[in-house]
Amino acid sequence: MNIIGPDYLIFGVDDVAACTEYLTAWGLKPVNVTESGGLFETLDGTGIIVRHKADPTLPPPLPTSNMLRQQVYGVRAAEDLDAIEAELGRDRRVTRLSDGSIEFKDDHGFELKFQVTIRRELDMPAEKINAPGAPAQRRPNEIGVWEEMPALPRTLSHVVLFVPDIEIAARFYCDRLGFVITDVLTGAGPFLRPRANDDHHTLFFIRTPEYMKGCEHLAFHMGGPTELMVAGTRFVKKGYQSFWGPGRHKFGSNWFWYFNSPLGCHFEYDADMDKHDDTWVAREAPMGAEASQIVLFEMREKWAPGGPPPGAKH
């Protein structure tokens, strides 16, 4: 089963116009978007689909107030869909659609869809750095930052789900779909990756009561920590509310910056995530502030020497 990761996340929302404004400001490209909703894509074609919650074409809602309707995963080839259908068809209904994709529910009732991936291969440079003791990555006179520098989400990175039973959730994705646990935050849950993706995680579970079940946050890979900082700063200047960050996680090593959203979950810019293969041995640490991040910063107004920082007491 060559599962790559999430192609799309589909939401049924209260306010399509507010979500359209938010997702466009986030840096996603509207594709055939109308007042009824549509697709908002990253540079590689993955992204978010929103429609009004009453839209009859949407998958059914969760029994909670969460707006997530379906997770759409990409696989490498049609043969992978056949393998998934054969495995999951042993104990649940699997629906084969006219385009060859398949739909079913996981053991917590989340709606899943698997399709041959729509991801476009990216050919873009990573963020370049210059450091003593290493060859310079930027040529002489090549500057590292400028006011109008691009900082757009490159791909849909991962999704984090609230689930009432971590063991059931992890067993389904590992035993039935071949995901691998990379690390575990005890008291919260495991980080997982599908075998065809070497990112530290594309999925993470957090244990919560049943009434909270749904999407806690979703994330987008950026080209590096500078792009993350630039995109986040621009987003704050547009009036959107920072929730957590910027900072850098320990497990996964990825830089992060989370924001509140009108989609009923948090959105995250991330950058520079660890890569793993099957020789990796999962770590475990108790959930808490120390395990969750190595550094944490806070957005503030720009300042320059010559006076007290904004908000300082005289």
TrEMBL record:
One of its GO terms (molecular function) is lactoylglutathione lyase activity. SUPFAM superfamilies: Glyoxalase/Bleomycin resistance protein/Dihydroxybiphenyl dioxygenase (SSF54593). It holds the Pfam family Glyoxalase. Signal peptide: none annotated. It comes from the Bacteria. Keywords: Metal-binding. Residues 155-272 form the VOC domain. The keyword Metal-binding applies. Gene3D superfamilies: 2,3-Dihydroxybiphenyl 1,2-Dioxygenase, domain 1. This is Glyoxalase. It comes from Rhizobium straminoryzae.
